[in-house]
């Protein structure tokens, strides 16, 4: 039609180029004399992120960044279902429903794999077409054998993750070498199934920095590549059977760069083992929203965190993605939160169009530089661990480094330096909990490894204390706040006072002790004890016989007041004192009362 407007091509020449010097001049003008260095962001990984990056940033890398191997586009939307007990028929039915409503695959977590209804699974979910992942703690090869028998002649799709107790894959390879070799043998000729896992999420969900997560994942992969090959199974077969599980946090650009750096270093690792270059592009990354950053308080804010985390995962090149329901920390699986979690990938893929692009971060001055910095730091860290003996020898060293990083995060959250919306900033003081705090604190499934746990448990314990006082209950309680948490509580409390009101405070308790809150209708007292003292105390309160070696105390222990008061005295708990303030005044301040 004659009146149809004709689009005028846009020429980049129409926009004058802006030099680095011009950006710096504009920055200095806008800051009005303030040092631009104050805008630098110092990462826990040990390096700084600059306020802005220009084209010279790519030149500083030495060579143009190597394009990343193409991940699957679009990524697979893979919800996670845990089979707590029984044969899992109910979870299989839930999986079938999810696949009819937006999911592309399913990840089953199986604490008791031998009881899983494999034949029912094969009936409900055609294994030739359905992407299914399995996480087991034992019997990985037997489960794979059953799956192969249940679908004869079928090439399985998905992955197997054999999670040994208390450590990442690769930490005890020698104990499971034959099992892992069977897994590789059973899935030979199945290019869409990964029989071996590197669990980087083990580190990320415990507070490791991005650099540590990448480095330790490479250490685990190196252990598997060194230990699993045999006369019948080559190192190339092992590499082709590996995939990586990654936990993705809410630091948007950093997490994008983390996945990109991991892919880049994977190629470097395989080259170090003398493996064919063609294997570099076969790495599969399964990403999941991080439990480390998930919160119990104001739990709908998890929807925002999960959106950011999911975007980072897919822009960073994840092949599959699991998004946790926003209420998974305290609620049973339900249709509402499960649907929201499942639909997040659908929205990003279909409405945001992220399923139409590959490696959209390529060429970004900022992201290419950040990817390069993470890769360099992680490779140095990886080499240092290998020089110290590699896994499993350095397992203790890894745990110490992660503990240090996690403790620093606890401190930053408690002091308000690191904002967690709904937990330490913009709290909903009138929040009506969707759970019973007492039951949650007593639950063995309550995740105590998260970044916000010390802050959350103090708030929940305080709420219970004030409730107990108002009701004039005849019972008292001791709540486990965590290791070395009293110092964090002190710093958080001092930040509520004006500078001239703050007392001089020394360390609140010896290093390595656990922090406790004793609460009765009459008083509340912050205390500390050694882990051994608390263990003996808990066994006494719950009358656990000494011959029962394995006993994990709940977060909340309660009894009648005389019994609890006497037990606290006998087992040697010490009071943590704040000069000039009672514990109740400290709690009032922290609660904003």
UniProtKB/TrEMBL annotation:
Transmembrane segment boundaries: none
Entry superkingdom: Bacteria
GO molecular function annotation: cobalamin binding; intramolecular transferase activity
SUPFAM superfamilies linked to this entry: Cobalamin (vitamin B12)-dependent enzymes
Domain Methylmalonyl-CoA mutase alpha/beta chain catalytic: 188-432
Classification via Pfam families: MM_CoA_mutase
Coiled-coil residues: none
UniProt xrefs under InterPro entries: Cbl-dep_enz_cat (IPR016176), MeMalonylCoA_mutase_a/b_cat (IPR006099)
Protein name: Methylmalonyl-CoA mutase alpha/beta chain catalytic domain-containing protein
Organism: Hymenobacter lapidarius
Taxonomic lineage of the native organism: Bacteria, Pseudomonadati, Bacteroidota, Cytophagia, Cytophagales
């Amino acid at each position: 039609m004659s009146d149809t407007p004709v689009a005028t091509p846009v020429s980049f020449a129409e926009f004058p180029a802006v030099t680095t010097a011009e950006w710096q001049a504009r920055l200095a003008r806008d800051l009005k004399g303030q040092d631009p260095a104050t805008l630098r962001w110092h990462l826990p990984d040990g390096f700084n992120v600059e306020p802005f990056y220009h084209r010279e940033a790519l030149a500083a890398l030495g060579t143009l960044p190597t394009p990343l191997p193409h991940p699957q586009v679009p990524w697979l939307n893979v919800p996670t279902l845990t089979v707590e007990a029984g044969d899992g028929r109910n979870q299989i039915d839930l999986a079938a429903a999810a696949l009819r409503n937006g999911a592309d695959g399913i990840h089953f977590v199986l604490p008791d794999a031998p009881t899983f209804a494999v034949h029912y699974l094969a009936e409900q979910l055609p294994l030739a077409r359905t992407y299914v992942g399995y996480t087991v703690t034992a019997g990985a090869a037997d489960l794979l054998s059953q799956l192969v028998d249940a679908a004869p002649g079928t090439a399985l799709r998905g992955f197997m993750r054999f999670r040994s107790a208390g450590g990442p894959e690769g930490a005890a390879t020698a104990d499971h070498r034959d099992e892992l070799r069977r897994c590789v043998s059973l899935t030979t000729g199945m290019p869409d199934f990964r029989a071996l896992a590197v669990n980087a999420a083990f580190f990320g969900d415990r507070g490791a920095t991005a650099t540590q997560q990448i480095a330790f994942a490479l250490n685990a992969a190196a252990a598997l590549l060194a230990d699993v090959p045999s006369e019948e199974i080559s190192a190339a077969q092992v590499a082709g059977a590996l995939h990586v599980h990654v936990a993705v946090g809410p630091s948007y650009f950093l997490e994008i760069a983390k996945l990109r750096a991991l892919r880049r270093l994977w190629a470097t690792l395989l080259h170090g083992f003398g493996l064919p270059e063609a294997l570099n592009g076969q790495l599969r990354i399964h990403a999941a929203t991080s439990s480390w950053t998930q919160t119990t308080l104001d739990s709908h804010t998890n929807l925002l965190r999960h959106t950011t985390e999911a975007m980072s995962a897919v822009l960073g090149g994840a092949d599959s993605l699991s998004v946790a329901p926003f209420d998974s920390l305290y609620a049973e699986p339900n249709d509402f939160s499960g649907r929201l979690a499942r639909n997040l990938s659908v929205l990003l893929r279909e409405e945001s169009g992220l399923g139409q692009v590959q490696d959209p971060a390529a060429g970004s001055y900022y992201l290419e530089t950040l990817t390069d910095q993470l890769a360099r730091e992680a490779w140095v860290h990886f080499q240092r661990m290998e020089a110290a003996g590699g896994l499993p020898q350095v397992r203790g060293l890894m745990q110490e480094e992660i503990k240090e990083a996690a403790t620093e995060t606890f401190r930053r959250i408690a002091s308000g330096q690191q904002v967690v919306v709904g937990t330490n900033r913009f709290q909903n003081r009138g929040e009506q909990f969707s759970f019973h705090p007492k039951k949650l604190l007593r639950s063995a499934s309550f995740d105590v490894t998260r970044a916000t746990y010390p802050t959350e448990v103090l708030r929940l314990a305080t709420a219970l204390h004030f409730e107990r006082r108002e009701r004039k209950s005849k019972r008292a309680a001791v709540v486990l706040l965590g290791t070395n948490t009293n110092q964090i509580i002190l710093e958080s409390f001092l930040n509520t006072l004006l500078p001239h009101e703050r007392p001089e405070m020394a360390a609140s308790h010896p290093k390595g002790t656990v922090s406790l809150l004793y609460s009765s209708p009459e008083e509340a007292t912050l205390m500390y004890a050694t882990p051994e003292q608390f263990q003996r105390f808990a066994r006494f309160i719950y009358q656990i016989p000494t011959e029962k070696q394995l006993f994990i105390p709940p977060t909340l222990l309660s009894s009648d007041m005389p019994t609890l008061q006497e037990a606290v005295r006998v087992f040697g708990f010490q009071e943590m004192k704040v000069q000039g303030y009672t514990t109740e005044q400290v709690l009032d301040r922290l609660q904003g009362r």
